[in-house]
Amino acid sequence: MSTAAPEPKANMGQPIPRYDAVAKVTGKAQYGADVALVNPVYAYLVTSSIAKGRIDSFDLADAKTVRGVVDIVTHENAEKLKEAKLFSNGGYTSSTIQPLKSADIAQDGEIVAVVLAETFEAARQAAYAVKVNYTAAVPTTTFGSPGTTSAPAKGQLAQFKEDPKVGDFAKAFESAEVKITAEYGTPAQHHNPMELFATSCVWNGDSLTIYEPSQYVHGLKNGVAEQLGIDADRVRVINSYVGGAFGSKGSMTPRTAIIASIARRLGRPVKLVATRDQGFTIATFRAETRHQVKLGATRDGKLTSLRHEGWEISSRADPYAVGGTKTTTRMYECPNIDSLVSIVRADRNTPGFMRAPPEVPYMFALESAMDELAYELKMDPIELRRVNDTMKEPIKGNTYTSRSLMACFDEGAKVFGWSQRKAEPKSMTDGDWLVGYGCATSCYPTQMAPAAARVRLQRDGHVKVQIAGHEIGNGAYTVIGLVAAERLGVPIDKVSVFIGDSDLPPAPVAGGSNSTASTCSTVIMVCEQIRQKLFKATMPDETLIDKAKETVGVGQTPVTRAAKGDRQIDYERAFDALGVSVIEEYGEWKPDGAPMDAFRAMNKGQMRMVGGPEMKDKIAYAFGAEFVEVRINRWTHEITVPRLLGAFAAGRIMNPTTARSQLMGGLIWGMSSALHEATELDERYARYVNDNLADYLLPVNADVPSVEVIMLTEQDDHINPAGVKGIGELGNVGTNAAVCNAIFHATGQRLRKLPIRLEQLD
Ligand code: MOS
C-alpha cells in the first residue's frame, strides 16, 4: 500500500497532514472519558439478559455490601424523564425504548440498573452482584421468526417519503427480452467505534456540561434538555475529538439523560463508560435487510424495467428504515420502475444509521443484479453500466448536477487492468487459486444542512474559526482550517480551529457525508464577509470592489492576490483604514432549497438536510467505480482479496491526503461487509452472540494487501459554495457487490447473502 501523499489535481486543495495529528499521536487529544472530573462518581450499567418480558424483582443485598457503592438506580427509584421522540421522526433519540421507566423489557441488553460507586472497579463489582429476577416471554428475532410483523415504511416513518415508481413496470417486465429475478440479504452489523459509549455529566448549579462522543452536539444538547425538562441554554456538550462513530453517535441514546439525572440527584459529576458488549444494545446497529430485485432488458442491455423491494428489521417500538430504493431506482436510465420498502418488527433494539446506511445494503442488491444481468447478456459489466448511464434520473426527470460515473469506470478499469479479465466465469486461475475480477458502481447523495460560524482575523494574520462541527476521524479540523487559510490568504499554521462544543455556532450532524459541504460552505461565506470589509477598506473605488467580488469562487485566487492585477491587500493598511485590530464576523448559511424554518431548526438541533434525490429540480450524487480481485483456493475455499481499487469523483476534494484515507477506509470496510462482518443472532433469545472484538470479524492488514484510491477531477458549481459532494460514505458503497461479483467470476457461483464465508462455496 503506497503511503505517499497524493498529487493534487485540478479542483483539489493542498494535500496536508491532519491538523490534529500531533495531538492524537502524542496523547494530548482529550476524548470524552479522558476529562478529569472533580470528585466523580463512577457508573456501571446492568443490562437485561432477556429480550422480552418483565422484571419481577431485584436482589440488591450483595451489591450494596461492595465497599464504595453510592447508589443503585432501577426503574423503582429512577427519576421519570420526559418522553423522547425518534431522531428520524423529528426528535432527538436513537430509540424510544426508554430504560428505567417500568418493569417491562422490550429488547435484549436494555439498561435495567445503574450502579454508582466511588471507583470504576467498585461499580463494576457491585453491578456483577446485582440479581434481577425476570419473567421471560418468547421473543421474535429476525426474518422468518414467527411473530414478526411487516408493513410498508411509507406512512410509519416521517423520513421515508416515497416508494419511487414510474411507467408500468409489470407490463414492461412481462415482455422484456432478458430478465433477472434475484433475492439478496445483508446481515446485522455493529459500528464498534474504538471509543466506547461513554458519557460524563457535570452540574454547576442548574447548568449541565456533558462530555460525550457525539456526531451532533447541538442535537444532543437539545435532546437531553428536553428529557430533563430544562432550558437547552443550560446544557453544553463538549467533545473536541470523537474516537469513531460511523453513525452510532449521530443521535442521542437513552444513556445520557439517565446519567445526567443521576448526577443531578447525587450532586456530583457522574462518569459512565459502557462496555464493548453493552455498546451492542444501548446504541444502534445496521439492521439486517432482504431484497428482491427484478431487471428486464433488451438483448443489447438497455434496461426496460426495474423493481426493487426491500425489507428491513426494526424494533417493536420504532419504525426505523433506511429505504435505499430512493437511490437504486435513480441510478440508471429505465422507463418502468417500481419499488416498495417494508419494515419488519421484531423484539430488538432500534437500529440506526451506519456508514452509508441506505446504499450499503440496497446498492449491494442492485449492483449484484446488474452483474447477473451482464453475464446473462454476455456483456462486459462496465459496458452494461455505460449503456444505461444517464444524466437524468428516471423518476422525476431531474438532471444530475454532475455525474462522472463512466469516467470513474474508465480510469479505474485502466489502472486495475480490467482488460486482462477473461469474460467466462472460472476461466482465470493461478496454480491452486481461482482468480476473479469484479466491479460495481459506488454512489452517495450529496447532502447539506444549515450551519453557522464565527471567524476572527487579527491584524497579524492569525485566524480563529469557531463552528460546532465534529472531528470523528473525518479530518474536519483540517478541511475547516484549510478553507479559512485559502479564503483569507494566510498560511494554515496561522489558523486555529475550534469545533466539538455546543456553545459554538451550530453545525449539523457529522453524518450523511454532509459535514465538509456544510461547514466549509459556511466558513467560506463568513470569510467572504471579512474579505469584503478588507476590500472596502483598501479599495474605496466601487469598480474595484466589484472586481474583487468576481474573484470569489472555489479554488480561485485567495484574498492576498484578489485585487486588481497582482496587488496584494496589505492587512496592516486595511486594519489601519478600518481603525481596528480584529475583524470578527458571524454568519449563517443554508443550502438552496432549505425550508423556511431551517435556521430555527438549526438552533434547536433538528436536522433539515437538503440534497441527494430529494431536491426539487436537480439531483446531486458523488460517484465511484470499485474494482476487486479475489483469489479462492481450489481445495480449501479460502477467499482472499489481493487488490481493492476505487476511482471516485466527488466535486472539490478539500484535502487529497485526508480524502484518500477516508476513501481507503471505506473500501476496506466495504470489503469487510462482504466477507467478514456480521452480528450473529441467537434466534431463540433475540440476543447478539459475538458482541466483542474477538468474535466480531474485522479485517486486518493481512486481509487488504493492496488498496488503491484514484480521485478524479470534477468541478460542480451547482451544489454548494464549497463545491464539495462529500466522501465520508462514498468509498463504502458497492464494494460488497464488487467482491461478490468477483467471486462469481472466479467460481461461477452466485452468492446473494452476506457475509460470504468459505463454507458457502461448493
Ligand atoms: Mo453516518 S451513518 O451518516 O454517521
Brief summary:
Keywords: Molybdenum, Oxidoreductase. By secondary structure, this protein is α+β, with helices and mostly antiparallel strands. Helices cover 25% and strands 24% of the residues.
Question: How would you describe this protein?
Answer:
It comes from Bradyrhizobium rifense. InterPro entries: Ald_Oxase/Xan_DH_a/b, Ald_Oxase/Xan_DH_a/b_sf, Ald_Oxase/xanthine_DH-like, AldOxase/xan_DH_MoCoBD1, AldOxase/xan_DH_MoCoBD2, AldOxase/xan_DH_Mopterin-bd_sf. One of its GO terms (molecular function) is iron ion binding. By secondary structure, the protein is of the alpha+beta class. The protein is 25% helix and 24% strand. Strand 26 (621-633) and strand 27 form a beta hairpin. The chain is globular and about 75 Å long. The structure holds dioxothiomolybdenum(VI) ion.
List keywords for this structure.
molybdenum, 18 helices, Aldehyde Oxidoreductase, domain 4, 25% helix, AldOxase/xan_DH_MoCoBD1, single chain, Xanthine dehydrogenase family protein molybdopterin-binding subunit, globular, 3 domains, five-stranded mixed β-sheet, 762 residues, binds dioxothiomolybdenum(VI) ion, seven-stranded mixed β-sheet, alpha+beta
